[in-house]
Amino acid sequence: MAYRAETPHILRFRHHAQTIKSLIKPIRRYSINAVSFVSSDGGDNRVRFNPGVIELVRVVDSRGNQCALDAVSGNQTAEDINLRGERNDPSSVSPLANLCSDLGLSVAGLSYLLGGLGTDRSTGAIRVYRDIIEWAVLYDLIVNHSWGNDTIIIRDGLLRTKSFRRDVFPQIDGRIRAAVRQHQSERVQVSVVGVAKQNAVLSRLSVALELEGVFHKPYPCYAPVPQVIEEECYNYDRTWLDTQEGILERNERLLSDEKRIPELYQSMGALFLVKFGNRAYDPVWPVDVASFQRQDADRVIGQLTEDAQRGFPIPDYPMSIQRAHDFAAIGGVEMSVLSDLLYTAVSEQLSDAEEKRLLRMRYLTERLADARYNRD
C-alpha cells in the first residue's frame, strides 16, 4: 500500500525522464588543454592535540602545482582568518588575498557562515573556509593567469555554492566573466565547468532515467536539465538555482508595475547530465557548464569528454580531477612530520618536566596501539 501511494510521484519523474530523453545529444570530442584543482580531504588531514585540532587546507592542480596551503585551528577567530586575506601578512593565502583585494572585502566579509569560527560550530565554519579557498583558486586560475592556448578549467564540484554571501557571489561571477572575455580578446578560449559525482537531481531521477533507458546509447551523450525539473529535485532556496541569465530572463517577463527580482544569486552553472563513455550502461555524471557559456555546451562538454575518456582509475571520469586528487592527498609520512612540528611548538611553552611527560604520553600511546594491531 505504501508503494502505491508513491506511484503518482514515480510516474511524474518518469515523465521528467522522458523530457530529458527528448533532449539527448551525441557528444563530439574536442582536443583541449584541461586543468583541474582539488582540495585535500578535510577528514583525513586533521592533526589532533586534544583538546585542540588543526586542519590542513591544501589545494593542488592537475599539473602538480600547489595553489593554496593553510593550517587552521578550530579555535581560531574570524580576526585570525582575516589575516589570510592580507597580501603582506606571513599567513597570507595568495589566491584568497587576491580575491579579497579585488572585492575590497575581508575574508570574514565573504561569508556570514565564517562567524562560527572559534565557537562550537567551528567544524562547519572550516568546511566553508575550505570551499571559499577552492573558489578563490578557481577565480585566480581564470582572472590572474595567462593561458597560451584554449583551456578548460574543471572544478571538482558544481559551479554553485552556499559559502559566499548572496551579494558577494555575483561580484565574483562578474569578474570571472570579464576575465573570460579578456582571454577571448587575446584569441584564447577559457571554458569553465564543474563536475560532481552525485547531486540531488541525479539522485531523484536515477530510477526514472534507468526505467526509460534515457542514456542507454552506444556513444557519449548528454542532455540539459530543464530548470522546472531541477527545481523539483532541490530543497534549497532559489539562490542555488538562479544565475545572472535566469534572473534577467525572469525580470524581462515581469510587467512594468511588478517588483523586479533582485540580482542576488549563488550559482554560475547550467546543469547537464553527461555520459562520457561509449557503452550503454556507462555512468552518468552531473556537470555544470558556466551559464554564460551555455550556448557553447556542445564544444565545452566535448572538451570535457576528451579528458574524461582517459580517466583512471575511475573510467570515464575527468582524468584532470583524478590527477589533482593524487597530488593533493597528504600521506602518512607528511602527517607524521606535521604532528611532530605541532608537538615541538607546544613543547616550547612547557617546562622540561612537562615536556618529558608529554613525550612519554605520546610515544607510549603509539607503541601500545602498534602492539594491539600488529600481533604475530
Number of strands: 10
Report the radius of gyration as a whole number of Å: 24 Å
Helix run count: 12
Q: Kindly state the percentage of residues in helix.
A: 40-55%
End-to-end gap: 56 Å
Please, how many domains?
Answer: 2
Order of helices and strands: HEEEEEHHHEHEHEHHEEHHHH
Anisotropy-based shape: globular
Structural class: alpha+beta
Quote the average pLDDT.
86
**Major sheet details:** 10 strands, mixed
Q: How big a fraction of the residues is strand? A: 15-25%
Parts with pLDDT < 50 across at least 5 consecutive residues? none
Brief descriptors of the model:
376 residues, 43% helix, globular
Q: How would you describe this structure to a colleague?
A:
With 376 residues, the chain is α+β, with helices and mostly antiparallel strands. It has helices at 2-21, 78-82, 94-103, 122-143, 169-185, 200-211, 227-233, 244-253, 297-308, 319-328, 332-347, 352-373; strands at residues 25-26, 33-39, 46-49, 52-61, 66-73, 151-156, 190-195, 221-224, 269-275, 285-290. The protein folds into two domains: 2-328, no CATH class; 332-373, no CATH class. The protein contains twelve helices and ten strands. Strand 3 and strand 4 (52-61) form a beta hairpin. The protein is globular, with a radius of gyration of 24 Å. The relative contact order is 0.14. The mean pLDDT is 86.
